[in-house]
Amino acid sequence: MTDEPRPARSSFEDLSDLDEHVRANAVATGRRTAILITAAAVLFAGALFAVLYVVLLVPFASSSGARISGGTVALLLAYGIAQAFAGVMVLLLVPAGRWIGIGVGLVGIVLGIVRATSTPASGLVSILLSAFVIYALASSGPSFRRG
């Protein structure tokens, strides 16, 4: 090590410890981060609300004269099952679960837009939660890598 004076630089220009800094801030492979656990919780909550909607609200809607088709109920149940499946896959850090979760999030955004035409607040909440799931899974790629 020499005692030569270093030129005056600001701290963000000093890249001498870049390797150490990158290693210290990197996400460990195969590690469940808080954002992944939260995304899985959002997926499970969506699945729970889909089932509750079918079990609790559909019978009352049909008894009051409102028409809810069997296809709508089947699609809602299928979406709830897909959310629960994606949540399990995300918690297990299965690489395909990341893509399934992103797909479920995209479908959730579309459903939120459709729902926003009749109930804007509910549609906006659906859009925001689905966007969070997509963000969380898209930004947590290293956690799904094996190694």
Descriptive report:
The chain has one domain. Helices cover 69% and strands 0% of the residues. The chain contains five helices and no strands. Helix 2 packs antiparallel against helix 5, helix 3 runs antiparallel to helix 4 and helix 4 runs antiparallel to helix 5. The radius of gyration is 23 Å and the shape is elongated. The mean pLDDT is 83.
pLDDT under 50 segments (min length 5)? none
First-to-last CA distance: 37 Å
User: What structural class do you assign from the helix and strand content?
Assistant: mainly alpha
The percent of residues in helical segments reads 55-70%
Question: What's this model, at a glance?
Answer:
By secondary structure, the chain is mostly helical. It is built from five helices and no strands. The protein is elongated, with a radius of gyration of 23 Å.
Which keywords apply here?
147 residues, mainly alpha, 5 helices
List the helices and strands and how they pair.
Blueprint (H helix, E strand, L loop, with lengths): L17 H8 L8 H30 L6 H22 L3 H22 L3 H20 L8
Helix pairs in contact: 2-3, 2-5, 3-4, 4-5
